[in-house]
Amino acid sequence: MGAGHAHKLFRHGHSPVHALPAHCKLAATFAFVLVVVSTPRGAVWAFGLYAVLIATVAAAARIPAGFLLRRLVIEVPFVLFAFLMPFVAEGERVGFLGMSLSVPGLWGAWNVLAKGTLGVAASVLLASTTELRALLLGLQRLRLPPLLVQIASFMIRYGDVITDELRRMSIARRSRGFEARGVRHWGVLAKTAGALFIRSYERGERVYLAMVSRGYAGSMPVIDDVAATRAQWAYAAALPVTALAVCLMGWTL
């Protein structure tokens, strides 16, 4: 898949979770999220146990709580939506601090908030313990369509290319004394966006021609494909299997 590619979510470490093959962690995370979504919203205690499971995995991976919590900020829009549901949903109403809240809306808000937070936390843990290059190899090993893997691979790499182009253009503007301070500078920023598109397109063409000249024919070579052992699969399955037991108890109790 090419050279290594680091990302801001990844936290380098030598824990047992870091050592697991990427496709094991991908399958375990997907299964865990599926189990969490399948849990009845009334089983409040079950979501508490899921949070304990996430905290246990984070401790095993040596991921600090602050690192994990800071990256949960990405779900703020969903949190705001969840807080609005009790006010806009219909159905039975209940009074709280002088406000009229919908009971179905309260349950819906809890459902979105609990399941969304757990899903985001599991995804952050996956990204924190797995490099992007390894994630792409894991998707390929899980038989994701090769075209989708290629699109994801180029999207990640060209994201950095475009960011670097934008950084250089910003430095050039500042070196000429330009600072965007109001509406009257929007025209300059619009021209910057257009120039960024042209530069990115031209650079992409050059990169593609360079790849073709080196033998690229629609698929990237896999340099190091690591197969998982039964012990590693069992270790990765501990999280979703335990969560499944909690989910079944949530439906039966």
From TrEMBL:
The chain crosses the membrane at residues 43-60, 72-89, 109-127, 233-251. It is found in: Cell membrane. CDD domains: EcfT (cd16914). Keywords: Cell membrane, Membrane, Transmembrane, Transmembrane helix. InterPro entries: ABC/ECF_trnsptr_transmembrane, ECF_CbiQ, ECF_transporter_component. It is a multi-pass membrane protein. Coiled coil: none annotated. This is Cobalt ECF transporter T component CbiQ. The lineage of its organism: Bacteria, Bacillati, Actinomycetota, Actinomycetes, Kitasatosporales. The gene is cbiQ.
